[in-house]
Amino acid sequence: MLRVALSIAVAVMAVSLGAPVSRADITSLPPEVVAGLAALGPNLNPDVIAKTGALMKPLVSTERPAGVQVTTDLIYGDDPLQKIDIYKPAKGKNLPIVLFVHGGGFVGGDKNAYGQFYGNVTAYLASRGIVGVNVDYRLAPKVTWPAASQDVGAVVAYMRAHAAAYGGDPKRIIIMGHSAGANIVASYVLDPAVYPKGGPGVIAAILVSGPAYRAESLSKADHVYYGEDASLYAKRVPGAHLKQSKIPLMIVTTEFDPVSLAPESYDLAAKVCVRDGKCPAFLYIKGHNHISEMMSIGSKDDQFARPLVDFIRSVK
Hints:
By secondary structure, the protein is of the alpha/beta class. The chain has one domain (about 1-315): 3-Layer(aba) Sandwich (Rossmann fold). About 35% of the residues lie in helices and about 20% in strands. The protein has an 8-stranded mixed beta sheet with strand order 1-2-4-3-5-6-7-8, with helices on both faces.
């Protein structure tokens, strides 16, 4: 079964990408950035994060797109971290709404990480006629599973109630998560024990380089959120609930995602292929790493941003 799943995962990637892309074909990135990211390799640590930021930051505009209105630090709960920023497009109504959930290993990160980083995602979406919501949520060890996913649910409820004020359609909410945020989003949309009784209230989810969709992939560091009782992991990880939800998924990974994370995206995609007899939207981003993929949104390198917007507009 594992060989079948891996074969399907490769097929997913081939279908998603078409012909193989060489590094020289990534023409929208300056050659020195392409070389710099390749030199950092499939690693994730503070040094890689800092060097990636230095490479990518000059490529992302810090200017708010023309006409985009931003309302910051709206409160959706009692905890100081339960706040959101809403990026409203210049015009339009009944627009799709995307909630963006940041990463940080369940213990860190915020919606304003690295200055413009993460805000660039919602600003870009708003510039393309999509209401962008940048989400902060409670962190471990102050809270444990499934509190972060429940916070996502609270933001869904908030946006369903206030969508019209920002030009959004409460029936067209999509959730996007990066890194640990992808795990948090996956739990919310897949696990009936986490989302409300009436359903998650969203039409799709975008999972970007998420960790620990499988119990065996939980790292020691993840225990601060998932708890120390290993007997509970098999029921708590989001991948255990694929048969209970068929919400449309877009799954994203990069060439230089670390090997501790990348297999989760391929495995999840393969299992959806087997479950449905049809593979989910899958994007393999050539030349990027775990950090640069998100920083590319809003830059001239649109190999992530363009299919991201296409997927958002395609789901109803």
